[in-house]
Amino acid sequence: MEASKVNITNIKVPFMVTKDFIESKIQPIFKAKGNLMLTTNLSPSTMANAKEIIKKDNIKMDPYACLAIFGSLELQQELNQLVSSMIGTLRSLSYKTNGQFVAVDLKLESLGNLCKGNVIKTKDCFNAKDIGEFLKKIGYQRHTTIYLTQSGWHGSLDDFRKIFPNTFTKDAIIPAYEKAKYQITKSSDFEKVIDFQICTQADVFVPTISNLFYTNVVAKRIASGKTEVLDPTQKDSTSSSIVNYVSPYISKKSHWAYSCFC
């Protein structure tokens, strides 16, 4: 049967889906039709509610929610191969650090919105240079390979690259033919998938803003045992000890993912 002729029902799935929702809203339709598209609406109101949930310590996850999050979805083979190729490129560029690299979720637009209107700069307001100086302060060497989630290179990243010359965005490490195939420059969805996968598989992850991307990356890293997550907003900004910047999701085990792997 041609894919274009398949009638696919779209079901909106709430954040942290429950067993009751699956049994009442998803299972009957799946049994009847066999083809479903599951989507989660990350509207401002949804994200606000999610943030209230994820701020709470010791959240006990429904086992069905754990299964839905960690055991139900996988990348298509072609996209998985693309991501693996990009990660392989980053590791090959990290020959001075035994193939290890750091992924930094640094999107200039998001940081700009966070800092907009702040007359006095707070510990939660960064620019690219600030993040570079933070990494240098806690001991990362000049030759460290850094992956930035920013789409394309921007002049305001130049100060970061002066500190860490071995810095790359996805545009620099994705093969040209793959970029055309997946229309990376036109599709933010594929960019998000690539960023998520690279950030979950990097040796160290550094978020620069508290959002669902940060939360979900940490969840996947906890599941895979990669708990090296450094949060530059933590504790005394003058401290040079890396221990002082371990994400509270890790240091306090406050992330809901821990209840899935007890």
Please give a structural write-up:
The chain has helices at residues 19-33, 44-55, 63-70, 77-92, 108-115, 128-137, 158-163, 170-173, 176-182, 188-201, 212-224, 248-251, and strands at residues 9-12, 36-39, 101-105, 145-148, 167-168, 204-207. 45% of the residues lie in helices and 9% in strands. It starts with 8 loop residues before the first strand and ends in an 11-residue tail after the last helix. The longest helix has 16 residues, at 77-92. Helix 7 links the parallel strand 4 (145-148) and strand 5 (167-168). With 262 residues, it is α/β, with parallel strands linked by helices. The chain has 2 domains: 3-70, no CATH class; 77-260, Rossmann fold, CATH 3.40.50. The mean pLDDT is 83. The strands form 2 sheets. A 4-stranded parallel beta sheet has the order 5-4-3-6.
Keywords:
alpha/beta, 2 domains, 4-stranded parallel beta sheet, two-stranded parallel sheet, 12 helices, FucosylTrfase_pln, glycosyltransferase activity
